[in-house]
Structures are given as structure tokens and as C-alpha cells.
Amino acid sequence: MERAQRFMDALGRLEERGDVETLVSLFGENAQVSNAASQRVFSGKDGARHFWTEYKGMLDRVRSSFRNAIEAGDKVALEWETQGTAHNGAAVSYEGVSIIEWDGDQIRRFYAYFDPGLLGREVSHGMAQRSEVPATTPA
Predict the structure, then answer these.
(1) Which residues contact 17 (CB under 8 A, 6 or more apart)?
(2) Fewer CB within 10 Å, N or C, the chain?
(3) What domains are defined for the chain?
């Protein structure tokens, strides 16, 4: 479970301290990153940086907790719940599953599955106002 723990720890640092670089360092140069709320696939370390910066930027306060972590071969599945507050003070709570595919010590693919409607009306409304759908996902 070492790789699952590395990811969970790095996500915690992003959520608590805004440290995006620890999380980005886990991604490979050819990584693909996306989620159920985005029609876009973010590529490489720069794509991962953009994805996770957008995630953190969507919420004023955010904290993910993990119910299950399954590691098999080069794949990790994380079941999570994320709670926080939108910038307008509205509570946000949603849950889902993230699948992480590794190539050695680097993530080659990250995808999170969740119901984007559970992010809350305030966050969803803010997403609709943007020209590009932000990367709103936790783990």
C-alpha cells in the first residue's frame, strides 16, 4: 500500500497547505489526468499541476478522507469522501472513487469517478461560468 499512501499523503499536503508540487512530483512526464466533471484530459507534469491547482482553487477549505485503498500490481483504487467549503461559504460534500495507474514510482494515469452534481449548486454554478471546466476532484 506504499503507493496508495504516498498519493494520500501528497493530496493531504495540497488540501491542508496548498503544496501542489509534492503531488505533481508523483506524476510522470506522459501522465494523463482527468475526472468525471471534466471533458479535458490533462497531460504530463504541467497538466497534473494545472488539474490539482484548479481542484484546490475551487474550494476555500477542503479535506478528503479515505474509506478504502486497494493496491494490486500497478493499479490503486481509492474510495473517498471530500468535504469543504466553497469560496462563498457554502458547504460542499461529495464522494467517489479514483483509479491510479502507476509506471514504477510515477503515476501514468489518474481518473476520478463521482457525481459532479454532488459538488453543490454554488460550485457547479461557478464551473458553468468558466470557459473551461475545472478539475474538481479529490483523490
Answers:
(1) none
(2) N
(3) 2-128 (3.10.450.50)
State residue 39's pLDDT score.
85
Residues 6+ away with beta carbon under 8 Å from 132 = 40
Report how far residue 106's alpha carbon sits from residue 26's, in angstroms, rounded to the nearest whole number: 5
Q: How far apart are CA 21 and CA 52, in angstroms?
A: 9
Amino acid in position 136: T
- pTM as predicted: 0.83
Give the containing element (helix H, strand E) for 35.
strand 27-35
State the DSSP code for 39: S
For 106, residues 6+ apart whose C-beta sits below 8 A from its C-beta are: 26, 27, 28, 31
Confidence of residue 130 (pLDDT cuts 50, 70, 90): very low
